[in-house]
């Protein structure tokens, strides 16, 4: 299920429909004219559905926030690399050009890292390439700083350091997955809510299986999208890498064509 969004949605829908049917049968067994019109039962079911709505809204807000963090981290990293590249070109010389060239390759590796799907081997390759280039870049920057004591050299060192910090931040943002506690809470509330709806149908003596299936599919889609949006790249959702593409184009390099 961690690798297949469709499989997760199918299994969740089956569980929701099954829970609705179970609740309906329990309601049928307890159905009386008094129970069907009991305000207490309606109040409890309404409270359960209200709590479900709150849990959905809370998780959607958290997922949206995490997505905004990833976008901000991507923009921050691309901008930091671009700034370091400009300063390296301004420094000039053999070491300055070497730093600029390595930063161009570095930017390409970061685009692949940010835009690849989960479990794609390209992610590990991009990470390995990132670590390798960081060593190369810092060796040249160290040489520049040792030979030059002017503000330009110090500024380049700070820019490169900011680039590495931005990369660490991006790695953390992309590695984030919704906490299991929140996921289980979301799934549990969906099941309880669907069971409550089925129980109410049973008390009223109504089947409404088409309504139950439709509602199950709707809740399943919303839940799946929340989990997908809140995690770095667990399923189909991917972080926008246009900032890396623009940065690569601005320094005259061709972006990598990532698979759709």
Briefly, what is this?
With 260 residues, the protein is mostly helical. It has nine helices and no strands.
Describe this entry's structure for a reader.
By secondary structure, the protein is mostly helical. It has one domain. The protein is 82% helix and 0% strand. The protein starts with a helix and ends in a 10-residue tail after the last helix. 33% of the residues are buried.
Helicity level, as a percent range? over 70%
Rg from Cα: 26 Å
**Which regions have little confidence, pLDDT < 50, spanning 5+ residues?**
none
Total beta strand runs: 0
Structural class designation: mainly alpha
Biggest sheet, in brief? none
Give the total of domains: 1
Distance between the termini: 21 Å
Q: Kindly state the mean pLDDT as a whole number?
A: 89
**What is the 3D form?**
elongated
Order of helices and strands: HHHHHHHHH
Binned strand content? under 5%
Helical stretch count? 9
Keywords: Membrane, Transmembrane, Transmembrane helix
Protein name: DUF4239 domain-containing protein
Transmembrane segments: 41-60, 182-204, 210-229
Organism: Defluviimonas salinarum
Blueprint of the fold:
Blueprint: H1 5-29, H2 33-36, H3 39-91, H4 93-115, H5 121-147, H6 151-175, H7 180-204, H8 209-230, H9 242-250
Helix pairs in contact: 1-7, 1-8, 3-4, 3-6, 3-7, 3-8, 3-9, 4-5, 4-9, 5-6, 7-8
